[in-house]
Amino acid sequence: MSRRVRGTVVSEGLARGEALVVATGEVSVPEGHVSEHQVEREVQRFRRAVEGARTEIAREEKAARERLGEMSEIIGWYLTILADETTLLQPIEAMMRRERFTAKYATFRRFSEVAAQFEGAGEPMASRVPDIIDVKRRLIAHLRGGRKPLGELERLQRKVVIIADDLTPSQAASLDREKVLAFATDRGGPAGHTAILARHLGIPAIVGLDNVTSMVRSGEPVIIDGLSRGEVIVDPNQDDVHEYQVLSRRLQARRRRVHLDQERALTKDDVPITILGNIDRGEQVGGLRELGVEGVGLFRTEFLFLGNTAPDEEAQREHYGRLLRDMAPHSVCIRTMDFGADKWDHRVGGGKEPNPFLGMRAIRLSFAHEGLFRAQLRAILRASLEGRCQIMFPMISDAAEFRRAVGVLDSVKDELRKEGIPFDERVEVGAMIEVPSAALTVENILADADFVSLGTNDLTQYTLAVDRTNPLVAEMFVPHHPAVLRLMQRTVAACEVQGKRVSACGEMAGVAEYAPVVLGLGLTRLSMAARRVPDVVTRIRKLSREACRGVVEAMMAADGAAAAHKILTQFNRPPTSRRRQTR
Ligand code: PEP
Ligand code: MG
Q1: For ligand 1, is residue 456 a contact (CB within 6 Å)?
Q2: How far is CA 355 from CA 115, 328, 340, 461, 500, in A?
Q3: What is the mean pLDDT of residues 203-220?
Q4: Active-site pick, 142, 193, 200, 319
Q5: Average pLDDT along the chain
């Protein structure tokens, strides 16, 4: 009998296929014992699991080496961990013989002890903890013989729907778009980076499903309805399949392509809107060019480092250079690394703080790891002559912090000049406005910035005190809240006064329903994922900016998000139903 479970759609779309249930989170294993005569058999089972995990990782390393050259070093390090007889393997065996622990529990216990020792030893040892935990997870998955560890995803033989407890952005970044039809997770919120990545990759995704991993078994047929209901349908019946086929045809019809050369983003009262693209890898520029967008408004560079890659200065220079050439003559806004919060990298730590979104994140981490920051700035500057390059700093909270970031950039420029390395002296520098303190003091930031971009995802999160990744408060994550709109409005107004460019690059800019809001606020530059462009442009062409201004004024005066949303919904409703309602 078909079973249904409802969650939050974070990447729109439909999929039908076979489920693959994967274990991705931290594992916890209860204490377990075997009888005296089973001990040696259990030890052999442990050794076989170590071999199995080693073979799996060696295969991954080989594939990564072919794909990424020397950047496969993290995976190689996993092999070193698995070969460590003194610290890990022999102590585990000794524990099994002495205490008659199950292989699973002895593995869990020893790896956890070693992780705690590394953690306590401070940097650089502490930054290895996520790797130790990942190897522990893989080894336990082999001992369980059931759920597949995430590593399996990299060599999928068939197309599958991934069912997982959660996916980190780096895990999502390594998904094979050809083989992964969709994913559904127990945890996760609508505005986290995993969700954003799913939208960029065009993978339908539903999160916050609570217990989908215990409802589905690998191999069972599932439908992901990320279009009408936001449901995962397990073991669908004929009616479910029929409904899926109807929806699927409707979706195809909706996804007609728009080319901005033929169909410009022009409002009914002739205000031209510049459409820019958000990307997380240079390769995505092809899709943007096909649509005719006028530049890249946000390149989230941290994704280059996630998913087992760690490009050095030279590899980054090549990547940025290729991207700038591919996008020329249009500009590319390269945002410096925004690690921390839900995106961590083993070299900068992160993910271990009680409140990571309010902790060491983005520009704060860049200052703390100045070597990495400078290497990135050198790479960007060295590539800058290949096209029209802009640099943007994330999570700036005030003018002093922005000046400090510009100071590092200036010192990198001096270094390059001394080395006789040419770069574009006119590279523009901007700040993301995504922290309320920055929006409230934007006039001061603009004194030094060439442009700013509104990061509505974080601006919403920090203004409303709503964690963007937490499904428990997902309904409160509302960028149309009057407080968020007022901060956006004052940012746009300050830019107008100082004659500086302002764009919006948060998810709000790419949602057709919000087009009246961003236009009404006076924004004329919107940056979004390629897949969002057709719907947004179609909507813009039906709007007059004057009418939008009135809507936003009313929304800003509303007493809360619900009232503001009502005003917007009434405005967005097609005229026929509006007439019907007033009759
Ligand atoms: C934002 O916060 O709106 C933004 C564009 O940055 P990110 O989503 O990468 O945090
Ligand atoms: Mg942000």
Answers
A1: yes
A2: 21, 40, 11, 13, 34
A3: 89
A4: 193
A5: 88
